[in-house]
Amino acid sequence: MSRDRGIVYLIGAGPGDPGLMTVRGADRLARAEVVVFDHLANDRLLDLAPARALRIFAGKSVGHCTLDQDAINRTLAEHAEAGKIVVRLKGGDPLVFGRGSEEAIFLRSRGVAFEIVPGVTAGVGATAYAGIPVTCRGGSSAVAFVTGHGDPETASGRSRLDWPALARFPGTLVVYMGVTHLESICRTLIREGKDPATPAATVESGSLPSQRVVSATLGTISELARASRLHPPALLVVGEVVGRREELAWFESLPLSGQRIVVTRPRDEGARSSDALEAMGAEVLLAPTVEIRPIEDVGPLDGALDRISEYDWLVFTSVNGVRSFFERLFERGKDLRALGGVRLAAIGPATAEALDRFHLRADLVPPSFRSESLAEALAGVAAGSRILLARADRGRTILQDEVSRVAEVEQVAVYQNADVDRLPDALVDRVVEGSVDWITLSSSAIAARLHALLPEPARRRIGREVKLASISPITTKAAADLGWTVAAEASAHTWDGLIEALVRQVAAERAPA
Ligand code: SAH
Known about the structure:
alpha/beta, five-stranded mixed sheet, five-stranded parallel sheet
C-alpha cells in the first residue's frame, strides 16, 4: 500500500494481561511499521506487530524514561512524516495519566494524523482482577481516579490536588502512582477527616500473574503494604467496595496463579501451548531450545509427494510434520485429492487434531502416544503395505526400525529441527536467581538441549528451586541421567497430560500439611 502520509495510533495496551487490549488496538498493531512502547505495556503484545516492524522502547518507568517526552514526541512525528504507520503503545488507557493527550497535541501541531484507541485503565482493569468493583449499588455511586505522584505533605504535592475535598469524596478513591507516597497519602486523607476504618487495598501488578493484593483499612494499609514490599505498578483503592473482594476475588485462586513456567517447545508450538497455562493464571516464559525450519533439500519430499497416492499409509509423528507436509504439497500446486486413498496415522491426539484442521481424519491413533505404541498399532494393521513416514530430519528411529520388520517403510524429512544457540539472557538470569517455578520438558531431546544451553549455576537450581514437569517416563529418565529430579510427570503423555500433572503438583504443594 502506498501512502503519502503516515499516521500515529495512540493505543491503550490495558493494565497487563495481553488479552485486555481492544480488538481495534490489535488490528492497528498488526499493521504497524514502527512501534513505540513503554514499560507498562506488556511486551508480549509486541508479538502482534509484524516481525519486520521497528520496535522502540520509550521508557523504563514513570519519571525515568530512556527517551524523554520531547524525544518521544519527535520520534512519533518523524516516523509518521516519513510515511510510516506508527503505533504508540501505552499501558492502560493512553489518556488516563498517560500523557497521551500531550503526544496527540504535539502531533496535531506538526500536522501529523493520529487516532486514539482507548484501553482498559488500571483503575478499572487491575481492580476487576482483584475482585474489587469500583462502583457498586449500595456500596459506592462514584469513583475518583487520583494521581498520587506528588507528596501531599509537601507544598508542591498539596497544590496539585484538593485533598480535603478528596477526603470528603462520597465514593471510591483509586490512587495511581501512589507507592512512594503511600504513607503520606493515607495520613493526609485521615487528617482531612476520612474514617481510618474505611476499607483499603493495594493492587500490585493487577491482571498479571504476579498480581498481589493487600487489603486492610485506610489506617493500616500503608504499614501492611510496606511489610509486604509493595512494588510499582500498584494502585491504592479506598472505599467500602474493597470489602466486596471477599466474595469477588477470582484471579488469584486460579489453579496456576502466581506460577512462573518456562515452556521449552519450539516457538510455534510453544505459543499455542502457553495459552492453556495462561488461562489457568500462570506466567509463561517462552524459551525454545529447538527451532522448526523448512528442510533445505526438498528433493526427497517432492519425490514422495509426487508418488503419494502409491502409498498405503502416511504416518505423522508431530504437529509440525503435518503442517510442513501439507504446506509443501500445496506449494507444489496440488491439493488434498493428491492423497487419494492413502490411510493416515497420527502418533497422538494433537497430531490428529492438526490433520483435522485440513479436514482429514486419522485412521489410526495409538492408545498411548509413543513411538513404540504407534509401531505396534501399525504392525497390527499395516503388515505388508507401503508406508511413508513423514518426520523431522532427526529424532528417534524406533518407528522405522520396528515397522520395517513387517512392512515396506520409507521415511522422508518434512521439516528440520535446528538447535538454538542460546537461551534469552533474561531467562537464564531468572533460573540462576531461582525466580522461575517450573520448566516443562516435553521430550528427552529438549532435556538434553536445555542442559547444554544452561550455565552451571542455572543447572544447579533445576530440580530444586526450579521444578521440572516431564511429559513421560522416558523424558524423566533423560532428566535423571542429567542429574535432574522431576517433580511432576504426566500420566497421559501429551502436553495436556503434562499440564494436568503440573496442576496436581501445585495443588498438593498448596494444600495445608
Ligand atoms: N495510562 C495508565 C496509567 C499510567 S500511570 C492507565 O490507564 O492505567 C502508571 C500507574 O498506573 C502506576 O503507577 C499504577 O498506579 C497504575 N498501574 C498501571 N498498571 C497497573 C497494574 N497492572 N496494576 C496496578 N496498577 C497499575
